[in-house]
Amino acid sequence: MSSLCGRRLGFVSWGAVFAAFVLTPACDRSTAIRKPAQASSVRDDRPSFVILLADDLGWGDVGYHGSEIQTPNIDALARTGVRLEQFYVLPICSPTRAALLTGRYPMRYGLQAAVLKPFSEAALPVEERTLAEVLRGAGYATAMVGKWHLGHYSPHFRPEARGFDYFYGCYEGRTDHFMHAMWSRNGQPVLDEGYSTDRIADEAVRLLQERDAARPMFLFVSFTAPHEPLQAPDAAIRKYRHVADARRRVYMAMVDRMDEAIGRIVAAVDDAGMRDNTLIAFLSDNGATEDYGGDNGPLSRGKGSLYEGGVRSPAILNWPARLAPAVEQRPLHVVDVFPTLLGLARIAPDDGRPLDGVDLWPFLTAETAPPHEELLLNVTPWDGALRIGDWKYFERRREGKRFRRLYNLRDDPAERVDLAEQYPQRLEQMAARLAEYRAQSAELIAKPMRRPEDRPVEANP
């Protein structure tokens, strides 16, 4: 084992760890996906879904984007699937996961501004219906392995209560990759040995092998890599011993190992005879942190930023039986996953909450108009960004001042040239539209530990 960052549990005490699990009502210790009380003997022919979510993966850190990191399995998904080259997520972990599972911008329920801290009393509001809840209610077997990071203070906040028949992994946002002190299986603590990426793959493969073939399946694989702490097996690190920067070397090894895990999971889908009727989606929750070895390619900034390096993710949809290989350059968003999967599952959402995402399937399989006229990249009390067509508006508020930028992403994807002065009318129109979104925002339920407006103004915000 190799590690560049020491193990720590932050401010969480072992007493709190004990209380979180032992004082929780008894949970299912089974390793199998729960079955409905009245199972049907008729085989359900609706498609299965496998979502593969990387944690802090840079846009430039996959082989098909020119990376030196060896990612043959991700590259194979890209080569035989649809590459979504302008796919947007939120700039940090919890908001993206919330958007993925609800199909709604996190500003609708106050989760757009910060990640959920360990043992925070905040969570994805229980009023928000998750993708897993809808699919399970319609007869799908639902399972999640890996990182949750949407609240666990109350058992009602945890994945077992949010639509997943089965959960194995960590509730928190940061975990030691070798010491699984905070991991659980269906609410019960586990102390499994091994590297976290390998354990996640082991569990995903087992679930695919043991699934109920009569039911379609939703499997959410939420990797903890390559999020810091920078840790990887020695064998993986040795593959990149020629890389001088120690942080970059371990980061590359983490991505490499995740790619191997993805290869195992895809192979399990094939071996289970599911491939022709399964949509596989691959994406990251946000951009990489360059201080921890990540590379966002030609895009500006990284994790935590509303510049493209923070919110544009490598993304793939792969279903060779139904989707021809393609490179899609039009802007799409993580909120689109929810309605797209529901459309394929022939389910109409019925809880009355309007979705921000749209069903991408007609757009991907036929010559139809772009699905979005505009995309909200995020909005908080202190910053925000909006995309309309090729134009991107960005604003930041600091020390009572507002800094605004306008970019044409078709001509300037790296956001080097600010066009605010050349196009003042467009600037004001997009600023007004962002203000409308801000006015619609719910009260924040999670706030940064230090308010961004208190930080020094950057020379180039």
Characterize the structure shown:
The chain is an alpha/beta fold and 461 residues long. The chain has two domains: 44-365, Alkaline Phosphatase, subunit A; 374-454, Arylsulfatase, C-terminal domain (2-Layer Sandwich), CATH 3.30.1120. Helix content is 25%, strand content 18%. Helix 5 packs parallel to helix 7.
Fourth CATH level, the homologous superfamily of the largest domain: Alkaline Phosphatase, subunit A
What is the count of helical runs? 11
Q: Strand pairing plus helix content: what structural class?
A: alpha/beta
Mean pLDDT: 90
The value of Rg in angstroms is: 21 Å
Question: What's this, in brief?
Answer:
With 461 residues, this protein is of the alpha/beta class. 25% of the residues lie in helices and 18% in strands.
Write the layout of secondary structure elements.
Elements lengths: L1 E2 L10 H9 L25 E7 L17 H9 L1 E3 L2 E2 L4 H10 L28 H7 L3 E7 L18 E5 L12 E3 L2 E2 L6 H14 L7 E6 L8 E2 L1 H5 L7 H26 L6 E7 L23 H4 E2 L2 E3 L7 E3 L3 E2 L3 H8 L16 H5 L8 E6 L3 E6 L2 E8 L2 E8 L15 H17 L21
Parallel strand pairs: 2-9, 2-11, 3-14, 4-15, 5-6, 5-9
Antiparallel strand pairs: 1-10, 3-13, 4-12, 6-7, 7-8, 11-13, 16-17, 17-18, 18-19
Helix pairs in contact: 5-7
Descriptive tags:
single chain; alpha/beta; 461 residues; Arylsulfatase, C-terminal domain; disordered C terminus; 25% helix
